[in-house]
Amino acid sequence: MVNVHDSQTSRPIHAAAIRPAPANATRREDASSSSSFVCVTASWDGVAKVHAVTRAHGGRPATIRTASTCRGHSTGLYACEFSSLAFGGLLGTVSGDGTCRLWQDRDGNLTYECVGVLEGHRDEVNGLAFAPNAPLLATASDDGTAVVWDLNGGTLTGHGDDVVGVCFHPRDSRVLATGSDDGTVRVWDTRGTCDGGVVTTLTLHGSRETKRIAFSPNGAMLAAGGADGTCAVVDASTWERIATLAGHTDTVFDVAWSPDAKSIVTASHDASWRVWSV
């Protein structure tokens, strides 16, 4: 038996989970074998730690290397689990903050990064379980419900108000843009659904709300309507503003592109719609 004490926290460790070591580990001592495995511990300080463990073997002592420290939950952790390696070897953690966070080894060296936040429970989340042969996850909560999540989807979090507009890049489905009443447009890499998945955050209408947004059909530009009565046009390669279409006297709530990407139609709360050349 090896007893490990974490000197950096005196908070209780609530849960632990084990999975095989990755066969493609870049560190030889972490590579998959009968004498090595990966252990995660979840603590009441809101932190999960991933450890590479090698059992005592052939007279050599057991070794433990802390490979990752997973921070993001705002309160203590209740449980942690690994999915099967067939479904990405995801790590799931649940917390009193009402969320489940998903983490993934990004480089084969047990460097776990947050790739998703599952929100929807109305109270503390106490437990989780991955399906053994499908991309499904179940969570159990003090709100009296168990929720089954399809891991092919995810929740993008970060806006500070209602999210009004959403659109995928027409030529790269990994890129998603959202427009919010918090006054920003966020562009996301959907492979990462925490703040680490945000490619850029744009403020296009001063302190006013952003409404509907749309990529041009060729993916070269992004248009965003706003409560300041304008439509902002952004270069989708640099995310720099290239035009401001002004003329409406009230909120521009929706925008649409012509098939040749040479014109934009704007619809406004001033009871008019306009066609613009770009």
What is the N-to-C order of secondary-structure elements (H for helix, E for strand)?
EEEEEEEEEEEEEEEEEEEEEE
Cα end-to-end separation: 70 Å
Give the helix tally: 0
The stretches of 5 or more residues where confidence is low (pLDDT under 50) are 1-5
What is the makeup of the main sheet?
4 strands, antiparallel
Which second-level CATH architecture of the largest domain applies? 7 Propeller
Mean pLDDT: 83
CATH topology of the largest domain: Methylamine Dehydrogenase, Chain H
| Number of domain units | 2
Oligomer state equals single chain
**General form:** elongated
* Cα Rg: 23 Å
Q: Compute the number of strand runs.
A: 22
Helix content: under 10%
Strands of the widest sheet, in order across it, are: 1-2-3-4
Structural account:
- The protein has strands at 13-20, 36-43, 48-54, 63-70, 77-82, 91-95, 100-105, 112-118, 125-130, 136-141, 146-150, 163-169, 172-180, 184-189, 198-203, 210-215, 221-226, 230-235, 241-246, 252-257, 263-268, 273-277.
- The chain is mainly β.
- The protein folds into 2 domains: 13-150, 7 Propeller (Methylamine Dehydrogenase, Chain H); 163-277, Methylamine Dehydrogenase, Chain H.
- It has a 4-stranded antiparallel sheet with strand order 1-2-3-4, with no helix packed on it.
- The radius of gyration is 23 Å and the shape is elongated.
- It starts with 12 loop residues before the first strand and ends with a strand.
- Residues 11-25 have a biased composition (Low complexity).
- Pfam families: WD40.
- Keywords: Repeat, WD repeat.
